[in-house]
Amino acid sequence: MGAPGDIEFDDDVQRRIYRHVERSGTTTIDDVRDEIRVPAPAGSKPARSGTTEPRVRLPPEEFRDHVDAMVEAGHLVERDGTLHLAFDEGTEEYTEGDLTYRIRPARESDRGGIEAAIREVAEEGTSVAGERVAAEIDEQGALLRHNDRESRMFFVGEVAPDEDGDEWSTGEGEIAGWVHVDAPELDKLRHTGELTVGVRERFREHGIGSRLLERAIDWADEANYRKVYQSVPATNETAIDLLRDHGWENEAVREDHYLVGEEFVDEVMMAREP
Q1: Residues in a beta bridge with 232
Q2: Structural domains in the chain plus CATH codes
Q3: Is the CB of residue 18 less than 8 Å from the CB of residue 7?
Q4: Strand duo 192-199 + 227-233: pairing
Q5: What is the bridge-based pairing of β-strands 227-233 and 263-272?
Q6: Are 37 and 56 in contact (CB under 8 A)?
Q7: Per-position DSSP letters for 151-190, written without gaps between them
Q8: I need a surface site. Which of 3, 80, 195, 198 has the fewest CB within 10 A?
Q9: 37-53 residue pLDDT tens
Q10: What pTM, to 2 d.p., does this model score?
């Protein structure tokens, strides 16, 4: 799924279904059907007010046809009676030393784990932009966004849930790190995306940050972004070195832009082309 604004729907009903799922993050099929109302057939009993046109739910079979068409078109994913936005699947598994982990697209069910990881890293004073992102997804109640105003994509590093590090059958693992790309739907900025990346301290030095960064850059390239950028405190030398190792360059420095603890810290603005 590429940049926002590139989605085509067969009709207005499908557009409304998509927008409801996009706003909700995840929702049951019954809730969506209850939300999407259409004008009542001719001859139906008028609304009680007598002034508004009666609106009804779609018949189950007709609504099911719309959902099936959107799933088949790659706009939505259906899991256990719920609907989610469909982003390209693709899970990569790695083992570094005694740690096995996956790099994969995030799901709405990851929202709590991602928020916790962002806030844990933010407490170190190393991810001010990430802290803002955590506040945004908490306020909006949705992790992934893809509409006519913005596109927000997350990938996560997920650690195997068992002690041996080689079994995934017992359930989802723990979120070890994240990378996110966020782009506004503004003509003059549509070609750019803001990126944040972070790894929880106890999972560092296993290549998770590098692989998350590479995955996000590949996604931005496929989505036709011309530039991705990130702003970090000058004290976050680990992140700055990581970005430079992956071809990022300094664009500007704003002196004393952040207040971390009791100290003013410079902001280093970095960018690269996908």
Answers
A1: 268
A2: 12-85 (1.10.10), 92-272 (3.40.630.30)
A3: yes
A4: parallel
A5: antiparallel
A6: yes
A7: EEEEEEEEE-SSTTS---TT---EEEEEEEEEEE--TTTT
A8: 80
A9: 888 876 556 555 555 66
A10: 0.67
